[in-house]
Specification:
Elements (H helix, E strand, L loop, with lengths): L1 E5 L2 H12 L7 E5 L6 H11 L14 E5 L3 E6 L8 H4 L2 H6 L3 E5 L12 E8 L6 E8 L1 H4 L2 H7 L17
Parallel strand pairs: 2-5, 2-6, 4-5
Antiparallel strand pairs: 1-7, 3-4, 6-7
The protein binds adenosine-5'-diphosphate (ADP) and magnesium ion.
């Protein structure tokens, strides 16, 4: 688990672009966190780093948006799905096989339908309005091999916990 902090949406986009530098064809990234946490903002920075020029918008109603950059990006939002299997019905496995990159907002809710290798990025609100905390888990061999590279890439956002004081125990 890697813990990181950002103080603004722009910094979240930069963090996401650092993640995108390590991405490989066929990778899967899950984004978890409440509405407004910054899942779409993350995807915007991520997509820009993949060379996507088109504006990246929330796929809340379309379920999946597709973009062409250096790699193809499939951007899903599964908030509205009623059943886990629906993510397969909308063609997840085909997307992964295309050799692009798949990013799923609310992806933590459909883990039983997913392959065993993915990066899970969980966003939480922090102390200030624009503070966010990231818990990043590298799941499966495909990702665990990149643990050190990812920690290095995210160095600018690690260990800034002083900006978000911990709740003190009584
Ligand atoms: P989600 O997709 O998780 O519902 P969005 O990315 O659509 O969230 O919205 C996040 C909102 O929070 C945006 O208005 C963004 O500008 C704002 N924001 C403020 N600080 C941050 C931050 N540190 N990281 C990401 N978004 C932030
Ligand atoms: Mg969103």
């Amino acid at each position: 688990m890697i813990i990181a902090f950002t103080p603004s949406a722009d910094e979240t986009k930069l963090l996401a672009s650092a993640v995108a530098e390590l991405i490989r064809p066929g990778d899967l990234v899950l984004l978890a966190g409440d509405l407004g946490a910054g899942k779409t903002a993350f995807t915007q920075g991520f997509g820009a780093a993949l060379g996507i020029i088109e504006p990246i918008t929330s796929p809340t109603f379309t379920l999946v948006n597709q973009y062409q950059g250096r790699l193809e990006l499939f951007h899903l939002d599964v908030y509205r799905l009623d059943a886990v299997d629906e993510v397969l019905d909308i063609g997840l496995n085909e997307m992964l096989d295309e050799g692009g990159v798949t990013v799923i907002e609310w992806g933590d809710t459909v883990i039983p339908a997913l392959p065993a290798d993915y990066l899970q990025v969980s966003l939480r609100m922090g102390e200030g309005d624009d503070d966010r905390m990231f818990e990043i888990e590298l799941v499966g061999p495909r990702w665990s091999a990149r643990t050190r590279a990812l920690s290095t890439a995210l160095a600018p956002w690690l260990g800034e916990a002083h900006e978000m004081p911990r709740v003190r125990e009584r």
